[in-house]
Structure formats: structure tokens, C-alpha cells
Amino acid sequence: MIRYAIIGGGWRSEFYMRIALLLPEHFAVSGVFVRKAEKRAELSKKYPFPFVGTLDELLDGNFDFVVSCINKGNICNVIRSMAERGIPLLTETPVGINRAEAQKMANSDPSWRVQVAEQFHLAPRYSAYRAIIESGLLGKVNQVYLSACHDYHGVSLLRYLLGVRKKTPEITTIPLTDPITRYRGRNGALEETLVEPEEKLAVYRFGKKTGIYDYSKEQYFSGIRMPLIHVKGTRGELVNNTVRYLQDGIAHEFELKRVAFGEYENLDGLGISAITGNGRVWYKPPFEGARLSDEEMAIATVLLKMANYVKTGEEFYSLWDAATDVLLSCDE
What we know:
alpha/beta, Rossmann fold, Dihydrodipicolinate Reductase, domain 2, 9 helices, globular
């Protein structure tokens, strides 16, 4: 059983609460620190966890590590506070709201027991993409076009798919606008409104490898601005769910298929069993039969990796990695 304490009672912290409810055989929440009494009362009606009003009360509990889910402006302060106490910390992103702050995190004390909840690359489809790349089916991958995930998350995915963790790129950015009808948001349906969000186009040149980032934040909730991922290799390409590759002088093509349960007459809930294609399994979730969304599955995978980090010291997403994502994405 993996036990964690949570700092914060906002939208993101509820992911960690839901995961513990949905996978009680794997996870338990020892307590949740929320400053405002009215917010504690509201959350206690939804979740059967201890909600406390001070950090000391939270840290008096029995846990393997702390999860920090607070506003961006205070993330680095909590990182320092927990690190100086020697408490293992899983922190949400970003680790710095500007270049100066991110640089300090990149140069932080290596003895700090901190890892970062950068989960996008652990989601089912991106895990499947990476498995295809590592199989060699596409040959040597030298270019990725990514229109999915904002700013530092997008940079993280580009570096992950290109395999360029330690390289520093040359960056060219072009600001654009993307007029679009907004009809959905984080909390569901909205009254239709014409908006002009910024569309950021950036080219990252990691030597001979290139990442092209093209994103508008409306894509997170809109069904009329869908994600687009295009991975180009010397022997093939991947475009969203379509994979093409060269074999025996012939171009082959297959579709990635999401194998789900809970469809049609199946009564096992709703979730993902695997991602398959071309007679192979490219992704299999770490929790069989879990009724989790892709985002929740990715975060639950982060929790598994954090528990392993606490036991073994094996890093999975360091402050340096997360700070590098911020440094490569921020404009100031």
C-alpha cells in the first residue's frame, strides 16, 4: 500500500484523491492540508480522508511521501520547505514561474528528495508512441511536430519523443492568434463565445533533431481543435493513430487501436486494457481493470514511480528535468 499526504485542495489535488478512491488496494491518502475551513468542509462531503487546517497536522500523519498541489506562485516555496525538512516530495508543475526561479530549481541541492509530477509522457498514447519509436520500426526519429499540451508540458513531450533529454536547443518562436468559438472549459459546457487565444509556434533545433511545437490552450477542452502529433523517422512515420513504415521495399500501414472494457455488453466499468496495432501490444496499463481516465492513469503511474523513488532513489522526473522544460518554454 502506497500512502501519501496532499498539500492543497484545488482542482489538481482532487485527481490524487479520486485515484485513491478508485484504487484503494494500491493507494491511501493519509491527510489533506487545506487552509480554508469552508473548502475543507466542502471536500469532506466528497472524500473520506482527514482534512486538516495546518501543515504540522498533515506532517504528523503516517505517509510515504507528500504530494504538493498548490498555486504556481508558491510551488517553489513548498519545494524548499519540504526539502529542508528532508521529507520526500512529489510536486506538481511548473517548478518556476519565470526563468530566474526555474534556474534556481535546476541548480538545487542534489540531496533534496524531490520529484516532479510531469505525467503527460506516461499517458497511454504517448507511452505507446515511445514504444513504437524504441522498437526501431520508424528508423531514426529526427523530427516531431506536436500540437498537444501547453508550454512546459509540450516541451517535455517533445524532448521525450525525440530522446534529447540532455541537449540544449536553438529556439525560434512565432506568436500567432487562433480565433475560435469557446464552448467548453475545465468545468464543462459554457455559453458560446468567440475568443482569440494566443497560438504559440516554436521550432526547437536539437542539433540534427527538430521539435515543432504548435499549440493553443483551447485545445485542452475543445472538440474543434484536436491534438496532432506527427513523428518522422528515416523508415516511417506516426501521425496520431496511424503508423507507416518501410519493410522489404514495401510501405506498410496500420492503425493503433485502443482496447477498452465497459463497452457494449461488457459490465466491467469503463477503462483501457491496452493499445495494440500490427499484431503487437504497444501499451498495457500498470493497473489491470482500473476505471481511470488517461490523465488519471498517467498520474497513478507517477505515484507508483514516486513510491519506487522513495524506496530506491531511482529518479523518474527530476527538478532539473522539470526546470529545463520551464526554461525552454517561458518567454521571460
